[in-house]
TrEMBL record:
Family: Belongs to the ice-binding protein family.
Keyword Signal recorded: yes
Signal peptide: 1-18
Designated name of the protein: Ice-binding protein
Length: 262
């Protein structure tokens, strides 16, 4: 009898450690710093490190980037891809025809699948923490579920190791006040932080955000804001002198459809 109880207790401990979160796989969506279904606009010069893409909307929905078309030698010439002085990487749209542009539909599908995966995670470690106000908190790894909007009115810290995962499920909007900062501590990586937001994301002027934004609607980055992560949005992305730096795409196994020719 004593033996049985001990084994049962050990089983319970094993289950607790097995509850560490599996990564949300981005697949080909993780090959972009910014993806949008309806457009990417910058009000004034932004700095994007990584590729950006729109689909199913066409390239005219990318505005403010001074796009330069890279064409082939057909008559009339066909646009393969575009570049921008504001983007370290390429610009893709559903009306371009380079190999990576031709699989944009797949990347959008992967973005939506990642959203659904994150939204569907069960058994949150924390429910409606701080009534949705993360200001001043230091959060360890885990699944955080909010039935409301979430605000970041003052700096807040995400703390854990480089193996740890954070998934924030937000039923409303995610808003961050001007000049506030998400701070990473202890080796926590932006690529392991997932914000699944059913509403919009708004990052205030001069504020700094960390993580992968999987957004059901729009993402607005106000003047001088920045992100270490990715913006994967199902409607529009608006920027204004913003800096978006993509983290390494961990867990990407297959070689990507590289646009070697352009
Ligand atoms: C919040 O972060 C900003 C930007 O790093 C910093 O300037 C400010 O001093 C921080 N505020 C507090 C209260 O720590």
């Amino acid at each position: 009898m004593t033996k049985f109880v001990l084994i049962a207790a050990l089983g319970a401990i094993a289950n607790v450690s097995a509850a560490a979160l599996d990564a949300v796989k981005l697949h080909t969506a993780g090959d972009y710093a910014i993806l949008s279904k309806t457009g990417i606009t910058t009000a004034s010069t932004s700095v994007i490190k990584g590729d950006i893409g729109v689909s199913p909307i066409f390239s005219p929905a990318i505005t403010g980037f001074s796009l330069r078309a890279v064409t082939n030698d057909a008559t009339p010439p066909i646009t393969l891809v575009a570049t921008s002085p504001q983007v370290t990487g390429n610009v893709y749209a559903a009306d371009y025809v380079s190999p990576k542009a031709l699989v944009l539909t797949g990347a959008i599908g992967d973005m939506e699948m990642a959203y659904t995966d994150a939204a569907g995670r069960l058994k949150p470690d924390h429910l409606d923490l701080g009534s949705g106000d993360l200001g001043g908190l230091t959060l360890g790894p885990g699944l955080y579920k909010f039935g409301t909007s979430v605000s970041i009115p003052t700096n807040f810290t995400i703390s854990g190791s480089s193996d740890d995962m954070w998934i924030f499920q937000v039923a409303g909007d995610l808003t961050m006040a001007a000049n506030k900062k998400v701070i990473l501590a202890g080796g926590a990586l932006a690529s392991n932080i997932i914000w699944q937001v059913a509403g919009f994301v708004e990052v205030g002027a001069g504020a700094h955000m960390e993580g992968i934004l999987l957004v059901k609607t729009a993402a607005h980055f106000r003047t001088g804001s920045s992100l270490n992560g990715r913006i994967l949005a199902q409607t529009a992305v608006t920027l204004d002198s913003s800096t978006v730096t993509q983290p390494p795409h961990v867990g990407r196994i297959l070689a990507q459809t590289a646009d070697i020719l352009v």
